[in-house]
Amino acid sequence: MSFGELRRLYLIIRVFLTYGLDELIPKMRITLPLRLWRKCLFWLPNRHKNLPLGERLRLALEQLGPVWIKFGQMMSTRRDLFPRQIADQLAMLQDRVAPFDGAKALKLIEQSLGAPISSQFDDFDITPLASASIAQVHTATLKENGKAIVIKVIRPDILPVIKADMKLIKRMARWVPRLLPDGRRLRPQEVVADYEKTLLDELNLLREAANAIQLRRNFDGSNMLYVPEIYSDYCSETMLVMERIYGIPISDVVALEQHGINMKLLAERGVQVFFTQVFRDSFFHADMHPGNIFVSYEHPEDPQYIGIDCGIVGSLNKEDKRYLAENFIAFFNRDYRKVAELHVDSGWVPPDTNVEDFEFAIRTVCEPIFEKPLAEISFGHVLMNLFNTARRFNMEVQPQLVLLQKTLLYVEGVGRQLYPQLDLWKTAKPFLEDWIKDQIGIPAIVRALKEKAPFWAEKLPELPELFYDSLRQHKHLQHSVDRLVSELKDEKAKQHQSRYLFGVGATLLLSGTAILLFRPDWDLLSAGSVAGGIVAWLLGWRRTK
């Protein structure tokens, strides 16, 4: 470790001990040196003994800065790995980061443009509109058309900070399986690797721009979701230029009610937007926390969401979408056998899984859920229970499903905050059933024929030539197979002859040796036996070559 890394490590340890996070160290023989070392550091007492462990962990991460805040946010989505009291506190983490100097932001923007800011933008506000752990946002006006925009710029020198902290996090992740009893199941190194990839992806604003353009195209003309326009001509890896939006934050329920927003319809549309992204488009915004969602002031009786910050997106392939939809329907129909079979068929659990045992495990975990009314059943927790049960049967972590679970928890939480009586199942079930019918019914066959027709029409004139080439290749292949079979037969015959000659040679050599034992003087018989044995061995050896 370098001196800088050691200094940073000391700061991290000091913050952790000040918040009493050494309580997370299990009382095991292997951790005894760590616990003794902690006792010796009497000048670093726990200064927050009155707070719960989860809250202390959240406060410590906030104090350590952007990388650790993001890490805590990511951990809060893995409710399958952490106790509820910790996951709930981590979910409260916000990007409480002080803004950096607006003059530096202006300099970074001009570096990205390669020209003075006045050449492209007017009315640049040097005071940031918002500041987060990775970037901050400034307002301006686009010179070419006078439209109000926001300019998102990556924090200066953030990459070295991220790399330095990630090195330390990786080192600590390697120790977790040795220190925690359940450490291996937590798979800390994989969690950290996923986090690092997510973090580095967020540093590339061109990726975010492309995601936003795709999402905007998917919902073009929709009254459910509006995605701001991206001005890609001005974007770079460190700068994003986007239409400025005006809306009510989704978390401000009081303002929404005062503006007369139809809360029931708004909550239902949140669910519809999510399932439309997942099942229709196979491209979903995977960071839909309240800070990234607004509601348009226009048409309060027909409310429309506004989505921003598309740095993290997820997707599902056709098979995953179908299995997931069928899983949800089978679960709410209490067809646990079907749920178990779907997990095996999809490859999410090993093919040799005992379906009866798996069905019983799912029934044991999930049946108590149905003691509640459907309107009170958490869709996100249903999915979480399914995945947790499946992991006991060696289900591998599916990154796309983890993102989906995280997003569904966000959507469901927002929906029930807006309208507590929201029956998420009543809203989602018709959508899922219609989607499955569309995928496996006659419309799906007709659609597939339409999609493939141009390809077939293009290949139709080539069919005679392809048929002739296939016959010729079959003929050549048959000749090759015949030749190979003949060669194998010859090789087998040679091996047989070789073994026979080795046996004859060994017999002759043993006979000659036995004759010499009884008749010490060489004679024609003993000499002939030894010579014949040697010759037989030589011939056998040649046959093996």
TrEMBL record:
Residue ranges of domain ABC1 atypical kinase-like in the record: 93-343
Name the record gives this protein: Probable protein kinase UbiB
Gene Ontology MF term list: ATP binding; protein kinase activity
Assigned EC number: 2.7.-.-
Single GO biological process annotation from the record: regulation of ubiquinone biosynthetic process
Coiled coil: none
Protein function: Is probably a protein kinase regulator of UbiI activity which is involved in aerobic coenzyme Q (ubiquinone) biosynthesis.
Species assigned in the record: Pantoea coffeiphila
Major enzyme class: transferase
